[in-house]
Structures
1.
Amino acid sequence: MAVLLGVLAVLQYRWVGQLSTDERERLRSHADNQADNLAEEFNRELTRAFFWLQVGPELQRDAPLDDEVNRYARWYAAAPRPELVQTIYRLSEPTAEKGAWVVERFARDSARLEVVPWPAELEAIRAQLQPESHQQAGAQPVRVVSTFASIPALLIPRVGQSQANEKDGRVLRTISPLRGYTVAVLDRAYIEKDLLPQLVERHFRLSQDPSVYVGIYGPGIAFNAPAGEVPAALRSAPDVTNDDLFEIRFFEFRRFVTDRRVEPPVAAGTTGAGARPVNPPPAQPGASNTLFVAREGRGGNPFRGRGGPGGPGGPPTPHWNVNVLHRAGSLDIAVSHARLRNLLVSFGVLLLLGTSMGLVLMTTTRAQRLAAQQMEFVAGVSHELRTPLAVIRSAAENLADGVVSDPKQVKRYGDVIAGEGRRLTQMVEQIMEFAGFESGRSTLDVRPADLGGIIEEALRGADPLVREHHATIERRSATDLPAVLVDPGAVSRSLQNLIVNALKYGGTPPAVVVEARRAEGGRREVSVTISDNGAGIAARDLPHIFEPFYRGGDATARQIHGSGLGLSLVKRIMDQLGGRITVRTDAGKGSAFTLHLPLAPEGALAGGAADRAADAPGLGDPRVPA
Ligand code: ADP
């Protein structure tokens, strides 16, 4: 079983390790997915704005090319999240008459474009457009970056005409000329206060499962969820990071082409063709993709800004990052905590199993030993009973038959019969007392009692045996012994047991000392010590002598009569009375057993005998169940 437990423990350990690795992977990929989905949805919102605000033949075949005003107004009237775009600018590239870029701001109230100087917030965009000569570019591909996370803004090309060419079986469209751009400046406050909290809640469900911190960082943004204190590691060393936020998803354009929400008519007050509903063309296979493929001229996507202004190899367009950090400090810490918990639980179960097995083993061994002792006891007791009975019977028969008639001999026979009878009585009494304790029927009659009287009675009971053994008994007692709170009969029987043992196992002849005195050091007890001049108790017997039925090796070897119950009875009585029994033994010199008895309350015995005092009120219930 122990080997099996060991194997189980090793398997358990490995299994928990494996589980933790799997759990870590699961949690990581879950967080990865959540961050991905959040970025995806955010980008979809940007893409929607990009698409709605884009003007061009691909997307608006039946609308005049210069119908920007209509398109801008429709954003505010019908977009699902019009608040996302704070300001719209139209940039027109320099012409022969006007040598510089013309910047117009879309006024929402009047639905008109008003010429304004380059706004300071668009400096980054201006910097990108300066070095490019859009006129010279002609049919050559022009690279532009479409997302400016630091502003934050979208730069949307205003497409002129497009031409479809077939090349390698693919439809490529060449767009020319590029007439300018639409700039959608996004509302940072709306993003931070509405959009991001909504998206974080939708994808991370922090209100139901606040197990992670989510942070969105990048140029111009530092957003934390939950708001308030978050650990610095969320920014510097997150468990999961997704750096795709703030990207236009061009491959999703078709989704918006078929998006019915594009269709509603424009808001009142807009001009020109804007007054009629604009029906986006049905999705053309490959059209929305090839639009940009053609512009790039090398199969890449010019607006997926990693290449940055100036083509591949330029500085990367800054994106925003979605960072996720586990609340425990990191995912690894959380998983190792869970692993420790799992290990503790499973090893706890194994420990419990091992302990129960040990306990079962212990109780079985104990039960076996007890059964063996009981068998020994039965055999021993039958022998102990048979011997005195045989002696008594033959002595009685001799007397009855008149074999002995000499008065001296008759007296000797009488003494023998009385002695054997006494031994029988003592044994039967011990067995009955033990049975009483075992069944729980035995009760002790606890009351204040005079210790001197109790010792006196014990000595009187042992007197015949003292004479039989030609022993000497010395009694040493302090004169001012206080009253004790005990069952006088039980204590007297206990003392008698100890005296009988001292006579049985004492020297030849036995010399027994009975000494009673008050405990030193302020303990509220009186001690009675019975010492003998015997051979002492063997070390291997000492731990067991208070167990029922236990008989020392020396006792059985020397065929000293006994049941093995005496000391166990004394110990039980002491336990019930709140007293103690202790033993000191000296090999070859003798043993000393001491009873420590509790004191009676001061003055409990005053003015009367122990028996009368027992009835005195205020002593509580004197009956203690045995
Ligand atoms: P019993 O005397 O009937 O065997 P007890 O319970 O009184 O049973 O004692 C248990 C064992 O303790 C004895 O068998 C003996 O080996 C040992 N023992 C008890 N008292 C003494 C003593 N005074 N001197 C030496 N050994 C003793």
2.
Amino acid sequence: MANPSLRPAPRPEATGWSTLHRHHIGVDVGGTLIKYAAVDMADGELTTPVLRRPTPVPATPEAVAEQLALLVEELSEGPGAPHPESSVGVTLPAIIRRGVAHSAANIDDAWIGLDARRFLAERLGRTVQVLNDADAAGLAEVRYGAGRGNAGTVLIITLGTGIGSALFVDGKLVPNLELGHLELGGVDAEVRASALAREREGLDWPDYADRLQQYFAHLEFLFSPDLIVVGGGISVRHEEFLPRLRLDTRVVPAELRNEAGIIGAARHAYLAVPPPVA
Ligand code: BGC
């Protein structure tokens, strides 16, 4: 399904853009860790190391914003620092509609109903864009990772504490899919087939692959995807479970691993910036 028209390059980012337009800060807010870096959108490469700090407990908007302000300051000081006005992309494990959170998984419920985009922009004094964590991972994989150059229907599924999902049709994101909450065996799929479920139930790889087989077969039936990209921390062990799956769809491991959320967050911020007038 390779489609050269979806390959990176046509935007002018690789050539004359200033660092203000090319470099953005990506922040991936997870249930336990906040990971962040500056990213060059020309090639998706990080211009700083990936830095980490613990997610505050409880992860209220106030407490997370405080950490974000500190980390933006931290990034601005080191080598590879982004432009002082560069915008910030932030992932949350939440449904995000036009900047407003409509759910909260592993973060405080106080996010629900909050205009997170506006709230964080005010706290950071920068332009901020907010999106769902799996949507961010998908944006990164489709542009720079395992999904690049693929037209048609591409599903990115992240296996972690929950199950995240992102759907792309000819390279365009259909946001907020929430396929981790499809029913599987009478409960949410993520209760039975997330990486956390494997650990919690002490499942061996064949048993875990059975769960994934049921889940992916259901996704295949519903969406007829051309490609499924499997991400999340557990994807480093993909050889243990992906070869056991029997599906018509090609299933590949994510390539960007821990950096996908950061890169996708930065890309989301970048895509919101109007291109400079030539
Ligand atoms: C949440 C999603 C999130 C996923 C991965 C699910 O429980 O409902 O919004 O993308 O976990 O963090």
